[in-house]
Amino acid sequence: MHIPSSLSPSDSATAIHEVVLTSSEDGGGPPVVYRIPLHGRTKTNPSPVSHLLIATRAANVVPTIQKVQSMLARDTVIVLLGNGLCGVLDEWGALGNSNSSVVVGSVTHGVYQREQEGSMDRPPSNSFTTRVHHAGFGRIKLSPLRDDDDQAHAAALALARDLHTLHAEVVPGGAVLLWQKLIVNAAINPITVARDCLNGSLLEEEELRQASQSLCREALAVARCHLGLSFSDDFWMEVETVLRDTRLNVSSTLAEARRGGVSRDASELHYLNGFVVKVAKRHGLPSAVNEMWLGEALERYHNL
Predict the structure, then answer these.
(1) Please, are residues 140 and 106 in contact by the beta-carbon 8 Å criterion?
(2) Domain annotation for the chain: domains and CATH numbers
(3) How far apart are CA 263 and CA 200, in angstroms?
(4) Cα dihedral angle (22, 58, 116, 113), rounded to 10 degrees?
(5) pTM, entire model
């Protein structure tokens, strides 16, 4: 990522977010430190936000946008990176916001947060630090949510250029991209929670591998019906690739559970397998496998 490691805040910065990145690649290597100024709209910086990047848990996306609504302009581009965005956009559209200019992204890098020093709300000494481990090298796919949104497409291209070292690219079909991401997550994350295991265990243990394949097939059938589009029959290969690339990673849903979890409706599980089940019921499709693993994962969710 092209972020200068010695970046200093401007007069309008409200805090410095220091990201300490360690890696499993190249024998670990020394950590890389990024110092990122966080800018606030002040008297000397009254301009509205041109690009809003949100990379938070699914349940927080819509409330976050609503909190900063007064800082947004009609032409603000909203960039969403995270899991469960199909469910998020379902909620967002229900609130009458379907015309927003949106870029969506799918990130298959294995990354998890180790610890954070300081607070986003009340940063000590005007700074806070997040320690992140890059546990597996994947890709970043970006797409305008609407194919005819030229402004969002330009923003996606610019972001992909900045993130080229992380294998970022722009692809068409934002809705398809999000469902592909949803299927992958739905086939992996509930099992990692129910069994309290790393992603790689789903390749190493035949029982878990077969369970993941079953989740994938069922979610794939729901996606085909919902979008009216064809998906490759060998989509399991996509899941398998992610599992190999992130074999040492703690899934985001398992990390959430290990931190103590959140309420059922705010958990990632609600936006992953819960959303697959919700859409399956809309179309009268079977969802027994996703319902079963959703139940097992939720039962274990607050007991890790």
Answers:
(1) yes
(2) 13-172 (3.40.50.720), 180-301 (1.10.1040.10)
(3) 27
(4) -20
(5) 0.80
